[in-house]
Amino acid sequence: AGGERAAEEPGAAALLREPVYNWQATKPTLKERFAFLFNNEVLCDVHFLVGKGLGAQRIPAHRFVLAVGSAVFDAMFNGGMATTSTEIELPDVEPAAFLALLKFLYSDEVQIGPETVMTTLYTAKKYAVPALEAHCVEFLKKNLRADNAFMLLTQARLFDEPQLASLCLENIDKNTADAITAEGFTDIDLDTLVAVLERDTLGIREVRLFSAVVRWSEAECQRQQLPVTPENKRKVLGKALALIRFPLMTIEEFAAGNGQGAGAARREHDPQGPQVHLVCPRLRFSVNKRIFVVGFGLYGSIHGPTDYQVNIQIIHTDSNTVLGQNDTGFSCDGSASTFRVMFKEPVEVLPNVNYTVCATLKGPDSHYGTKGLRKVTHESPTTGAKTCFTFCYAAGNNNGTSVEDGQIPEVIFYT
């Protein structure tokens, strides 16, 4: 019987001659053994289908290793609603970022780079691996520059990383001019733009900052598939427009095209044909709240490109006191557009007081407007506050300008 048993069961020597792969013996430490299992089918008990479409990858893993390293994976595999599936889809995760997460859980090794750091940060947050989060944030801090500060600020706010966001803002404060000219500036979201404009420590003149904000509004119009018009630019800027500090600009800067964010109370809309040589159009108005008038919009020549000399004034009607004036000029292109002329300093206008606006022009016949309104209400695109103008005929030498017709179509102001 003993002989028969020996014939049925091979001895120890026979077993040692079997070609069995003993990988464990080649990995003397626990760390090496776990690292060996990373992205390996050996002992694998779950697969993740990571990513979407043609870029998706099937990645092997081990439930125990993942559960030890992440509370989220622990709940996924061992919680009250644990999954028993051996195939788990993760369409919102990038394969490279998921592999970086697994590499860290299996071996403590950090494998991130400029192209993968943001997606790895997202994945580390999703699966509650704070140590890997910290490595990602540290990597971003070391690579923070003026040309990527706005991009990183957006991501820091998205991923709720206040320390990184604070460093980005400090960098923008010190290098504002370089930061706003970087390509990533026009890609930021409105809330990030507002967070920057609210700061008192930006190292840049307001006129340059406003020019950058206008560029952002143009890009945002395109993102929202809106025509790039002044009205739509104001619309997409929303509350950000009120954060531009127009009083910090000089009148010349405002006149050079940077006043497009301020209010313009338009009284006349339909430019018509030639008018006699201009002398001194005048018009009375009052307003329901305190404002600061910075200039007027005037019509130009019907005879093509022309230079005009002009004196503009605001007069306190009852006392006939000149509150503000400027001897200046403007060049027109012959179109029926309005052309802005500005005071050297803003002129304060008080509520419910009568004022007379006057523009004495020297030059050829100009276009003029018709269908003027006696009452015009300008609504702030940011706050919704309404400024109500009432226009009246100004007796005397006014060159035919009245409420209904004339050559002063705009009063440019801010509140």
TrEMBL record:
This is BTB/POZ domain-containing protein 2. The keyword Chaperone does not apply. Keywords: Cytoplasm. Residues 44-114 form the BTB domain. GO terms for biological process: neurogenesis. CDD domains: BACK_BTBD2, BTB_POZ_BTBD1_2. It is found in: Cytoplasm. GO terms for cellular component: cytosol; P-body. Its main location: cytoplasm. It comes from Leptonychotes weddellii.
